Automatic annotation (TrEMBL):
PANTHER family: GLUTAMINE AMIDOTRANSFERASE YLR126C-RELATED. Pfam families: GATase. Transmembrane segments: none annotated. One of its GO terms (cellular component) is cytosol. GO terms for molecular function: transferase activity. This is Glutamine amidotransferase. NCBIfam families: PRK07567.1. Residues 49-193 form the Glutamine amidotransferase domain. Keywords: Glutamine amidotransferase, Transferase.
Length: 244
């Protein structure tokens, strides 16, 4: 099997490792089958799509809607590299699954708009599939409604031209969409479980996702949440796209 490529942007080593391990387990792959590149550390470099079965992009603290003068050099570099890769991926309809930050990377293509209109507080919410989502090869095996962990400042305010809306919540209209047949983005995190989201709440407590006094109550609510279905998307992605 050709390996999959995992792209991360988290500077915090413990959280970055936890994210990779969770995606690895959800995909059902070995480390040599899910090769990681940490974009916050250096340039992406040349990616020959023919070398890979597919690409998975993790989340992180970067927001494409951040003011340009507030973006670090590492963020600007990662954003430029991911934009160039996304243009190629969409043009070739190459298998791609971007979680959370994938919304920002793909959501601004083709006239799409990503802004701060539909941000959601960290926690678990019910995700509902659209009719197109229920018929989609990746999302179709999922329940029509399932709980997922999320937490984001920005979201898609207008879908890119030709995008297919796959899932929504009551408080965010675009939680998943598809471009072409094989390029996907989710606003929610398919890899997260209660332990991991509590660790992220601690790691990003000063990043403006919530008020400081909310930290412990958000963790308590997360521990009580039952989130079992989203991780299936990772295994399904591998099932659909693993190539000899």
């Amino acid at each position: 099997m050709r390996p999959f490529l995992f792209l991360g942007t988290r500077a915090e080593d413990a959280v970055a490792q936890q994210e990779y391990d969770a995606v690895l387990a959800g995909c059902g792959l070995r480390p040599d089958e899910l090769v990681r590149v940490r974009l916050e550390r250096g340039p992406l470099g040349e990616v020959d799509l023919a070398d890979w079965s597919g690409i998975v992009l993790g989340g992180g603290p970067y927001n494409v809607s951040d003011a340009d003068d507030a973006k670090s050099p590492a963020q600007r570099r990662a954003e430029a590299d991911l934009h160039d890769l996304a243009v190629r991926v969409v043009a070739e309809d190459f298998p791609f699954l971007g979680a959370c930050y994938g919304i920002g990377v793909l959501g601004r293509l083709g006239g799409g708009i990503v802004d701060r209109t539909w941000g959601e507080t960290i926690g678990a919410l019910p995700i509902r599939l659209t009719e197109e989502g229920r018929a989609d090869p990746l999302f179709g095996p999922m329940p029509a409604e399932f709980a997922a962990f999320l937490g984001h400042k920005e979201a898609v305010a207008r879908l890119p031209e030709g995008a297919v809306l796959l899932a929504s919540t009551d408080t965010c209209p675009v939680h998943a969409f598809r471009l072409g047949l094989n390029v996907y983005a989710t606003q929610f995190h398919p890899e997260l479980d209660p332990v991991a989201i509590c660790d992220r709440i601690d790691a990003y407590s000063a990043h403006g996702y919530f008020e400081p006094h909310e930290q412990e109550s958000l963790k308590a609510a997360a521990r009580q949440s039952i989130v079992t279905e989203p991780v299936r998307l990772l295994g399904r992605f591998v099932e659909l796209y693993a190539r000899a």
